[in-house]
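Saturday, quiet lab. Running sequence design on the structure tokens for the scaffold JK sent over.
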């Protein structure tokens, strides 16, 4: 799969969501585009890696929303997934980061460069649309 094909697919997904009146976060448009192109293996979903810690795009998306203070239910609504999926992502995140809870996971993610203030600003802009 070429990067240009992925970019075109991502733009098409984002455009389709916008036309349907859906507020789709950019990272989720990318995940849908990858799935549409056949990149369904989680290793192909452009994970985020820093300091030897690797989180999937979906896990980073959940972590961003946790950092913004959203509840599991609100995160699920925002990402169009069920609350149990959010909880599963949070379990995987806390295990991967060796965190004691969701707040500790956010702190570790910032300290390790997995999250930045720019990420949160972007997520807030997307959520405000």
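Result came back. Writing it out in full:
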């Amino acid at each position: 799969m070429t990067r240009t094909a992925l970019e075109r697919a991502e733009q098409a997904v984002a455009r389709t969501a916008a036309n349907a009146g859906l507020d789709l976060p950019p990272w989720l448009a990318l995940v849908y585009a990858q799935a549409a192109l056949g990149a369904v293996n989680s290793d192909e979903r452009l994970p985020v890696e820093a300091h030897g810690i690797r989180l999937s795009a979906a896990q980073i998306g959940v972590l961003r929303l946790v950092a913004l203070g959203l509840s599991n239910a609100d995160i699920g609504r925002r990402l169009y997934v069920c609350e149990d999926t959010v909880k599963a992502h949070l379990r995987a995140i806390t295990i991967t980061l060796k965190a004691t809870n969701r707040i500790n996971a956010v702190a570790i993610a910032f300290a390790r460069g997995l999250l930045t203030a720019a990420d949160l600003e972007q997520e807030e802009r997307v959520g405000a649309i």
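Notes for JK: The beta strands are 48-50, 53-55. Residues 90 and 102 are 7 Å apart (CA to CA). Ask whether to fix the surface positions before the next round.
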